[in-house]
Each structure stands twice: as structure tokens, then as C-alpha cells.
Amino acid sequence: MVEPITTQAIETDDQSSVCRLLIDPPADGAWNMAVDEALLIETAQTETPTLRLYQWQSPTLSLGYFQRHEDRIQHSSSLAAEVVRRWSGGGAILHDRELTYSIVLPAAHPFARDTQTLYRTVHQAIIGLLERLLSSVATEWQFKSCVQSAPVEQTAEPFLCFQRRSPGDVLLRPTKQSGNSLDYKILGSAQRRRRGVVLQHGSLLLNRSLMAPDLPGINDLLQSSLSPAEIIESMPQALAIALGVSLHQDAATACYERAAAIAANRYRDSSWSRRR
């Protein structure tokens, strides 16, 4: 498990601006999705925001809430991966060599009432962080926010989230001087609302997975070696500043107890993943 980091608090009297920080060790898909759902439920009661950073024990395909389970045959490389259905929408994600974040904001927080601004604000903060961490190797590449959806020529969108393009997605794009016109999606997020509380979670793709060889990560494209630990060291404070919150860490015992029950009753039950 990654050791807790130290952050400098932003002085505030507003309870909705005091944000709990959770840095979890790698876990399976059922547990990771159960904790995010538990946070969504808990925040409606406590009105305390939470920022969570986590990873995955083994390659796991998370289906968007509305996707059909049988559609996973569209991506043959990930058929051997564990599968779990997310509480949020969007395309399927092959979670493997990446870092995942989730942010849960109570109804009283300004960004909970403007979810598009929340999406853009978080992604812009991560762009700024990546530019600082990778300034020495990204000389022919630039991190950009996608400004429009990709045209869909078929009757359905691509199965995988990272093969889609939506406004606000973070792209790694070659500079004009490089002569390369391709861009690559390296961060996408999804949201879910419950009783005014907003959950936003997203996947930052660091390295190509053997189960998704068609999706290069940041390190593959930049020939860099950025690790999850390096990002974890800096990302919480970057997001705290962007969201106007201060950070504190606790054991989150009640949340994890709730998550254990949710995982057993929903995410470890194959009928949940196969419900569509």
C-alpha cells in the first residue's frame, strides 16, 4: 500500500470544503467499484467530499452501466480479463497499467451543481500536473483537452472508452513540428449522481496493457517511466487546489464496511455484470 502523503491544508470554515483523501492499495474490480458506490451513499449523509486514488490487482474490464455484457466480444484481447459493471456510464475500460481516481462531492459543493465544470476542472488540473512531471520528455507532444466528440460513422460508438472522443477528454497530441497527426486519449472520466451527490471517476492510462495492445499509454508514447507513485505524490494537492478544498486522511472504516457488503451483494454477483 502506498504510504499516506502530506498535504498543506487550505484554511476554510466551510465543511463542504474539507475533503477526505483515500489512497488505496490495488484491489479487484468488485472492491474498487463497491468503494466508489459506498462513498456516493455515505456522502449524502456526511456531506464531506472525498478524493480517492486507487489501482487494480489484475487486468479488469469495467463495463459502462448501460453497456451489454455480450458486447465485450467486440474486444477479443480482453476476453480473459475479469469483468465488472460500473455504476457510471460510458464505454468499457480495460484497467491495468494505470491510475484511477474518484471524486465524490456533496450537493452543497458548487461543482456538484455544475458537473460539466467539474469534469473540465479536474481534467485541466491533471493536464497541468502531467505537463510539470513530464516537461523534460514531452518536447514533441502536448496534453490537450478534446473540444468536440469524434464523428460516429457506424450505428454504435466504439466499445472501449479510450477509442471514443468526447469533449473534455485528455489527449496526448504531437506538436505540429513532429509531422505526426495522430492523437491518443490518455484520460477519460464518467459521472453518477445520487440525491444531489456527484461521483466522478476516471482512468489515467500510463502503459499499454497486453489485454489492450491497441491503446498506448503516456509512457509508451513519450518513452518515459512515470509511475503511479510519482503521480500519487502530487495529484491530491493539484486537485485540492483546483476544487478549492483542503485534504485530510482517516481510516474510512465505516465506508469500507459498507463497501464490503455492497461488493458481496452486487459486484461479486455475476448477475450484476450480466444484467444487460
Give the arrangement of secondary structure elements.
Elements (H helix, E strand, L loop, with lengths): L17 E6 L5 H18 L3 E5 L5 E4 L18 E4 L7 E3 L2 E8 L9 H19 L7 E5 L24 E5 L9 E11 L2 E9 L12 H5 L5 H16 L2 E3 L4 H15 L2 H4 L3
Parallel strand pairs: 1-2, 1-11, 3-4
Antiparallel strand pairs: 2-6, 3-5, 6-10, 7-8, 8-9, 9-10
Write structural notes for this entry.
- This protein has 276 residues and is α/β, with parallel strands linked by helices.
- The protein contains six helices and eleven strands.
- The protein has helices at 29-46, 115-133, 218-222, 228-243, 253-267, 270-273, and strands at residues 18-23, 50-54, 60-63, 82-85, 93-95, 98-105, 141-145, 170-174, 184-194, 197-205, 246-248.
- The strands form two sheets. An eight-stranded mixed beta sheet has the order 7-8-9-10-6-2-1-11, with helices on both faces. Strands 4-3-5 form a three-stranded mixed beta sheet.
- Residues 1-13 have low confidence and may be disordered.
CATH superfamily: Bira Bifunctional Protein, Domain 2
Question: Biggest sheet: strands side by side, in what order?
Answer: 7-8-9-10-6-2-1-11
Highest-level CATH class: Alpha Beta
Number of domains: 1
Using the alpha-carbon principal axes, give the shape: globular
Beta-strand portion reads 15-25%
Number of strands: 11
The CATH architecture classification is: 2-Layer Sandwich
Q: What integer value in Å does the Rg equal?
A: 18 Å
The low-confidence parts are 1-13
Outline the biggest β-sheet. Answer: 8 strands, mixed
